[in-house]
Write a structure and sequence with these properties.
The chain is mainly alpha-helical and 296 residues long. It has 12 helices and 6 strands. It is elongated, with a radius of gyration of 21 Å.
């Protein structure tokens, strides 16, 4: 074995860990933007053509709206909620309409969280709309994960993180882990900015399941690094906390680096938790067991 080894955990491994997170909570069918292994992508800015919020008597989310009109209606509703100018009667009527259309408005509000397409008032209102509608976990997971990772307005980001914590949202944690994994692209190379953004999101949310997922990857990497040099590896099982996953280990690429084993997940685990137990998996495991479901 060479002096140091860099170990990369494959997309399949992390995808199964994310699936295990989702399996801990009942979720609905995925939205049209189905969760995958790709990074969160935000498109070019476009001006919203949503109608201005109306006064009393407006019928929100009328039947028969096209997909485009429905999204525009959701943007108008989000702008109204974010602007804090609705009367009590108007807010009640809008809230009732949102609850009636919970899953569909959830998908539309999730799309309104794109900071390149919608202004901060609309994005803040979209989070409030998600709070009212309470859609299933996966419905707006990508939008909320994007807010935790890249939202530029602190009030909007803090509100999104509070909602994620209140919902104990495993689907969002899984999306952020996928985004974190995309920083280690086998073809495009390492993207430190992505890794740092994902680590910051996981740290601020404080979901213990993220700690556990990263520790599983650290354990895999450390054990594989001690077991073999470069070359295709076999299958191992990861068990614990209701997870029982066969993992097909990726090939290990070795290189010399100051005589130190470089573990990508370990650096992220330190950043997310604020702790440093080095490569002692047992100490990490004991510390994580003592943590609440969400950091206070």
């Amino acid at each position: 074995m060479k002096a140091g080894e860099t170990i990369r955990c494959g997309t399949r491994c992390l995808a199964m860990l994310c699936a295990a997170l989702l399996a801990q909570h009942e979720v609905s069918a995925a939205s049209p933007s189905e969760a995958g292994d790709e990074a969160l992508v935000i498109g070019p800015r476009r001006e919203s053509k949503a109608p201005a919020p109306a006064g009393g008597g407006r019928e929100w989310f009328k039947a028969g709206l096209s997909a485009e009109a429905y999204q525009a209606e959701a943007a108008a509703a989000a702008a109204a909620l974010g602007g804090d100018k609705l009367s009590a009667e108007e807010k009640t009527a809008l809230s009732e309409a949102i609850r009636r259309e919970g899953e569909r408005t959830g998908r539309a509000f999730g799309a309104c969280l794109d900071w390149k397409q919608y202004n901060a008032t609309t994005r803040l209102g979209a989070i409030r709309g998600l709070t009212i509608g309470a859609p299933a976990a996966r419905t707006a997971a990508k939008g909320l994960a994007g807010s935790a990772i890249g939202e530029p307005v602190q009030q909007v980001r803090s509100t999104a993180i509070s909602l994620i914590r209140d919902r104990k949202d495993a689907a969002v944690t899984a999306e952020i882990l996928r985004f974190w994994r995309s920083a280690y692209d086998d073809e495009l190379g390492f993207d430190e900015a992505k890794r740092v953004a994902a680590v910051a999101a996981m740290r601020d949310i404080g979901d213990r399941r993220a700690y556990e997922a990263l520790l599983y990857l650290v354990t895999l990497e450390l054990h594989t690094g001690a077991a073999s040099s470069a070359g295709p590896m076999g299958e191992v099982s990861i068990t614990g906390n209701g997870i029982n996953l066969p993992i097909q280990l990726p090939s290990i690429e070795t290189m010399s680096f100051n005589g130190t084993i470089i573990v990508p997940a370990l650096a992220s685990l330190k950043g997310v938790t604020g702790q440093d137990f080095g490569r002692d998996a047992n100490k990490w495991r004991e510390w994580i067991k003592q943590q609440p479901d969400f950091r206070k």
